[in-house]
Amino acid sequence: MVNKLNIDISIEEVPILHFSRFTLDQRFSEHHTFELRINHDQVEGTNGITLAKSKDFIGKSLTAQFGLVESSGNIFTGIITKVEIAQTHGFQGDIVITGYSPDILIDRGPDLGSYLGKDLKTIIQQATNDTPQNDLDFQIKPAYTSAIDYIIQYRESDFDFIKRLSAEYHEWFYYDGSVLHFGKPDKEEQIALIYGRDLHSLQYGMQIAPLNYKKFAYHSQEDQLLCAQPAVASSSLSDLSHAISASNEVFSKRFNQPLNVRVNSQKEIDTFVNDEHKALVSGLVSISGHGDNPKVGLGKIVDISTSMRNGLDFQVQDFGKFIVTSVYHEIDGLGHYQNTFEGVAADSEKLPVGHVKKPEADMQLADVLDNDDPQGQGRVKVKFKWECQTNDPTEWLRVMSPNAGSGDTGANRGFHVIPEKGDQVVVAFEEGNIARPVILGSVFHGKSGDSKGFKNSNTKGMKSRRGSELTFDDLNHALNLGTNAENFVKVENGPGMITTQSKEKIVIQTGQSSITLNSNGTIDLVGNIINIQGKQAINANAVAAGADGKQNDMSGKQVNIGKKTTTAIKIEASTKDIQASSAITTNSDSSVTVISKDEHIIKGSQVQIN
Question: What strands lie across the sheet with 469-473, from one edge to the other?
């Protein structure tokens, strides 16, 4: 039976009294589309081929309300995006008006966004805060309410971004004709349908799908690989339980995949994996139907029963309850209405989201904001070089190094150089996943790089923020390590020379021994025992030393000058004084010769010769 209904269609509150056809296609997680056909002459008032009046419909709102006389029906508000003339066989034809649900307003084009430490509701509000509320009524009530460490909108329209969030966090996302929902509503309206009365055809079935899998996610702060498998699914619907059992039997081999979202604990990954599993299971049993009850609407529950002939009577039996996930409405010019719908089991807590566009992450530039990692793991916070509405700093990101790890002495084995605040860095994404950024390294720009001293790449080196520098000179085969031009160590291969220079002093020390070279010319040798040995000779010469500048002093409890020489000991000075408080002994295994060019004086209280 085809029912005639009441229908009101208006454009900017101006009623459309006559039309030849109206269709409305509504689906979960998708834009709704509509088409309204009106006789050309009713709009333009002329036989000419023109859009002189109907072109003003573009950008205006269209409202359609339809239902049976004795009950309420559906209401839909959309935005007209296209007007055209459709003519065939020489007739005037129709003005064809098409458009979308108002969520098209948040599908403006690929955009960027960076969100730190915010929950889903706040993220969505900030992403859509420039959309007038009177144009789009958005109800945001996600089941997942915890703050998310960090999330990125990457070359996605706001609509595609929110759709991806609904898929990753397993939230309902749909427009009911008046309100855009993110999150399952508190209550769904129920519509009774009877097969054989207002439900003309019915198709019910089940399918199998791979349900045996494991998801994993690496938690770098704890160096832990988190893994989770979904819990054993069950359903009050016997057919769904059978589909689950058959799926596990056919697809018995488990497959492994990385989790798309960031998690910080075993509890979080367990929750995500179980929610994903619930969404997959809900798609195993489905229903589709064709009827003429105008109350059928997206997100509503249809309570289906069958009316079958039993002798002279009709027997009504319950068939089941289903959530409507898509519906196509059609009304002709005479007011005849019909619909086609699809649905899944009404007890489905999570729903699958189809056709989700995964961002294709590529390398990005960013500026370092902070490198004082509170956990001391060498991470940095950066801000992407993006011009966008919300560009929060990132969370603490790991920095790639040529060599990094731990060793025999503990942490920080390898190349420990953390980018400085203000540095420009390159950011990549682990596994190509926009949820897992990592710092590849730093890059120079026009105001930070100066390669004039590195001509032909003969010079290579490292330089710290304060100017400490390690330089390799391949042209002269030399190495220089220093803090500035006055304090350095230089190793030159050509002359075979190592030069150490300091502005004030150079100290070489080990244990209780040290050598200090002072800038005033003083050299201090300190040690418990100082041994000086020369295989050929030991020459000590001073132009001036000591207080009077004319003598060399050696003092101590015991001073040994050469334990043994194979040739000679030679001491030269303008004056030689050898003094002792007790006795001086000169001994030779061979002979002793004392020669004087002038007078030779030997004095003593008693002089013995032989």
Answer: 459-463, 469-473, 478-484, 487-492, 497-501
Query: Can you give the length of the chain in residues?
Result: 610
Q: Structurally, how many domains does the chain consist of? A: 5
Q: Distances from the Cα of 16 to the Cαs of 25, 383, 428, 435, 441, in angstroms?
A: 20, 52, 54, 49, 62
Q: What's the CA gap between 66 and 69, in Å, rounded?
A: 9
Would you say residue 71 lies in a domain?
A: yes
Burial class of residue 194, CB neighbours in 10 A (0-12, 13-18, 19+): middle
Give per-residue burial for 488-511: e unless 16+ CB within 10 Å, then b: bebeeeeeeeeeeebeeeeeeeee
In-domain check, residue 143 = yes
Tell me the residue range of the domain where 237 lies: 212-256+270-282
Model pLDDT for residues 277-332, shown as the tens digit of each residue: 999 999 999 999 999 999 999 999 999 998 777 766 777 788 899 999 999 999 99
3-state helix, strand and coil shares in percent for the chain, rounded to the nearest 5: 10, 40, 50
Whether the CB-CB separation of 204 and 247 falls below 8 Å is answered with no
Q: Report the DSSP pairing between strands 301-310 and 190-195.
A: parallel
CB 307 within 8 A of CB 196: yes
- State whether 133 and 75 are in the same domain: no
Q: Are residues 299 and 433 in the same domain?
A: no
The residue to which tokens 């902070």 are assigned: 370
Q: Please tell me whether residues 297 and 391 are part of one structural domain.
A: no
Residues 100 and 193 reside in one and the same domain: no
Residue 168, amino acid = E
Residue 1 pLDDT exceeds 60:
no
Contact 281, 244 (CB under 8 A): yes
- 443 and 492 housed in the same domain: no
Could you tell me the CA-to-CA distances from 312 to 194, 239, 371 in Å, in that order? 18, 31, 84
- Model confidence over 111-122: pLDDT tens digits? 999 999 999 999
CA 82, 84, 88 angle in degrees (round to 5)? Answer: 150
